[in-house]
Amino acid sequence: MARPPHARDKVLQAYVALLLEGERGATMDAVAAQAGVSKGGLLYHFPSKDALAEAVLERFATVTADDLRAMRVAPEGAAKHFVRTSWQVDHELDPIYRAIVRLAQAGHAGALAAVDDLHRSWLAEIVAEVGDEAVARTIMLIGDGLYHQASMPGTWSRDTFAESLPDLLTLVDRLCGR
């Protein structure tokens, strides 16, 4: 008898959640327990940790493709879109991005390639708009700094960035010569 389709998603979400706590703790037993499924139920959908990692990479590819599409069509332009959305850690991209980073830190070649590809793609979109790679890299560093600060515990960063975001976006315009 086939398992309910949502069980696969629950298992994948559990694996991502465990990766966020640390790659070593994301064992098959821990994933099954976190998802509330039997080990057999887990193995039905994902016969190995490699299969789980591949599913996370597929989800990452889908979410990042959506993000890049949104960046391309953003009325404000790719650079301002990147900075404006960088500090939003409640977006669906954030947990899957952090899970892929954890896998990359653990030496997973596919995850490392996926992170590199995403960063290259973000840079390419910004360069296409601003025409200067050094300016595009500076804009990415602004966004990366916002992301880092927003992911810190406490509310200081989020409150501060919410207030100062218009000034940062004005700075992005200045960097772009607008």
Automatic annotation (TrEMBL):
It comes from Nocardioides daphniae. This is TetR family transcriptional regulator. Residues 27-46 bind DNA. Residues 5-64 form the HTH tetR-type domain. Keywords: DNA-binding, Transcription, Transcription regulation. Gene3D superfamilies: Tetracycline Repressor, domain 2. It comes from the Bacteria. GO terms for molecular function: DNA-binding transcription factor activity; transcription cis-regulatory region binding. InterPro entries: Homeodomain-like_sf, HTH-type_TetR-like_transc_reg, HTH_TetR.
